[in-house]
Amino acid sequence: MTSLNWSTTLGLSSSTPSSHLTGDKLVLPQSALESLLSAAATAATSRLNDDVSTYNPASWDVPSYNNIPSQLQNQQLPHPLTFQLTNVSNGKSIYAGIREFSGNEGEVVLSTFLRNALGVKDDDDNAVRGEDGQVVNGHTPLQIQITSKTLQKGTYVRLRPLEAGYDEDWKSVLEDYLQRNFTTLTQNTVLTIPAQSNSKKFQFLADKVSPEDAICIVDTDLEVDIEPLDEEQARESLKRLLAKKAGTSGGGKIELEKRVAGTVQRGAFVHYKLLKWDRSKPVFIEVDDVEDGDEVDILVATNRPCREPSMEEWVWGNLDSKYPKNLTLPSDELQGTGIDELLVTIYGYKPQDDETDHTAPFSLFVTQTDPDAGEDVMPAESANPDNDICSNCKQSIPKRTMFLHQNFCFRNNILCPKGCGQVFKKGTEHNHWHCSLCSAYGTNPSSSGTSSNNNNGSINTHDKHINISHTPRTCSYCSHSTGSLPELAAHKTYDCPGKLHLCRFCHLILPQEAANDSSLSTSSFVTSLTPHETQCGSRTTNCHMCNRIVQLKNLDIHLTHHDLERKTKPLPQVCRNSQCARIAAGGSSSTDNTKNPLDLCNICFGPLYVATHDPDHTQLARRVERKYLTQLLTGCGKKWCRNDMCKTGRANMELDVMGAKEAMGVIKPMCTVEVLLSGYTGMPLNFCVDETTEKRKRIAERLSMMEDAEGKGGWAVEWCVKAIGEASGDEEKARGWLEKWAVKRNE
Question: If we measure between CA atoms, which residue out of 154, 176, 163 comes closest to residue 204?
Fold first, then answer.
């Protein structure tokens, strides 16, 4: 069926898309359906007229005129019905399918996918509406042009993942997601697809579609290829795939409030990095979803002083056997110098006599919201006045059934006689243990018995506790003896003189050496410097910004002061002449504004300066008026001039040249004393400049439109004008000056 000849322009609805409006779907008003049906009927009539006009008496296939009304009545819209959407404001286009015709008149509702593809911003559709639903306060909603288009059936799609390490069965996931949410596919769009195994969402770029740049994917056999973006991504994906096949997840970067699921082999490590967090708040880490009999531990360090944590080197850890495992990192310990990353490691605990090859699943969650905040747990005995507490299992039981419950409870359950409050089934009491050396207690998996690791792979938690907390250890670097694994980790992380590390000052890998006194050890802890770095950093260097002599270990703090000083600088005041690219001299902000009251630079004000006494500035206003009149009637004669207040500049820009009467009408309002003295923020002046100044002006405007080295922010044009002056017109040097001294827009 040929495409309908139908098009309309509707305002973007300000309502939030509903949860069922997914993929490339949109909602149109009822009137759109009526006009589409009318267009379909018109198209059918046109085809019938064409058929009758080419009547062949020998053919039995041509319909008669008597059949036209019934055919028009049964006329249906094309299936599937597809549209081309165009954002009128930026020209971006995409193809879409219809969800329903139930929208408000004059509006179109777009899914989140379509809004992103069309470049719709959050504030593009925040129209204010009255009780009747009409837009008020003169707000014009974003206009979307909608045109009916019939697309060819797709045959091939090439998708490229935007991240490495996708390990889902993407054939089934993509088939299900596209079938439920999409009618079309447009080249160079990004599909966001939820994974099946966790809450993570993966993004794919539709890099190529055939046979056209936009295709219909309904009722067609579609060949789909998934290829990495580049060779580096392919290597990373292969690395994670091999790690998963070996029973251990690949690790990688993690974010706050996003749960990560994985597996780890016994004796193996899975390393994660947290790069962004609020340094003023503590960090809470939770590991959960561990199968019975498997043991995983949390080890955490920072990039200073540790790298990736190991079993004998970590700063914070939770190695007990109670799940979910929680670990809190205090905020005051996360603010040391040089701490840029939190290194979170999941370790699969492996007993010494374990020869099995078990893997343990885990779920890691990192947050800065206190999980205990706001909880107000009501005591069990006060939760319900009709309940009472069982003296054996300590559970809240209805009073009317307490007798029956206690008969069963005392016959089948045992309350720990050592006062820990644990209740367990009779016959399993041998699995419950209390440490004879400390207050720790726990329960072994029911099948683990008394061995460290039984036949089915369950770990004896009592033996693990003894091994970690009460087994003496010796440092492999300096032969220092400790009474437990946590003590050894603290020693090897901070105090051990034989610990190898990369010195941040001499860039050599060498032992950190021993602290000579307690004050040096305390200083090393606060500054995150090892004893070697504390001594090595005492050497001096010259600051590249102010040339002062500074100790290497204090250079970061010194540069921070420079950065704070830079951010507090006021915006430079440039020459009021809009054609100029120099900093103003004197002006209303100067202590002596009698010689240059117009906020011009000295060069621009030079032709206007006269030593005559002029307290009310009337003579100055006349000189400005004469200068404007000379420019508009005679011109400066410079081929590079682009000043619209100059005859030559107007001719260069192909604007109409003004006569004397017209020029005076333009000049008079601009040359009153009040306007001229309105200051830097008032009406700009327009005096012709030399070619060098003209070029500097264009360079400053170009620099102002560029982003900084980090790809964001940029600088105001006033800073760019100052940079051009400092760099004597060299664009590269000016950009370097901006990065070093100027205040960015987002600071």
Answer: 163
- Mean pLDDT, consecutive 10-residue segments, the chain of 747 residues? 78 80 89 87 68 48 44 63 90 90 90 88 56 52 89 89 66 73 89 61 84 89 80 67 60 89 86 90 85 78 80 89 86 77 89 75 90 58 75 87 90 87 85 89 68 61 90 86 92 82 80 63 61 86 90 90 89 91 66 69 90 89 94 92 92 91 92 88 90 92 84 86 92 91 87
Task: Yes or no: say if 648 and 641 are a contact pair by the CB < 8 Å rule.
Answer: yes
**Structural fold of domain 252-367:** Jelly Rolls (2.60.120)
**Residue 400, Cβ density class (10 Å: 0-12 exposed, 13-18 middle, ≥19 buried):** exposed
CB atoms within 10 A of CB 276: 9
Q: How far apart are CA 375 and CA 489, in angstroms?
A: 34
Look up the pTM and report it: 0.48
Q: Quick one: how many helices (H) and strands (E) in the chain? A: 20, 35
First to last CA, the chain: 57
Identify the DSSP state of 491. I
Q: For residue 671, what are its two tokens?
A: 């040359």
Q: How far apart are CA 300 and CA 292, in angstroms?
A: 24
Q: What's the half-sphere exposure (Cβ side, CA atoms, 13 Å) at 602?
A: 2
Under 8 Å between Cβ of 700 and 684: no
Strand segments (E) across 616-719: none
- How far is it, in rounded angstroms, from Cα 288 to Cα 291? 9
One-letter identity of residue 276 = K
* Contact (Cβ atoms closer than 8 angstroms) between residue 4 and residue 40: yes
The CA angle 677-680-686, to the nearest 5 degrees, is: 80
Closest CA to 255 of 121, 125, 163: 163
Cα angle: 64, vertex 68, 73; to 5 degrees? 150
Neighbours of 712 (CB within 10 A): 10
* 319: CB partners within 8 A, 6+ apart: 297, 298, 349, 464, 468, 485, 486
Cα–Cα distance for residue pair 158/226, rounded to 1 Å: 6
CA neighbours within 13 Å on the CB side: how many for 486? 13
Q: How would CATH label the architecture of 7-148?
A: Beta Barrel (2.40)
Pairing mode of beta strands 107-110, 509-511: unpaired
Q: Classify 156-236 by CATH class.
A: alpha beta
- Measured CA to CA, the distance from residue 603 to residue 690 in angstroms comes to 11
- Sketch the domain layout of the chain as residue ranges: 7-148, 156-236, 252-367, 381-469, 697-741
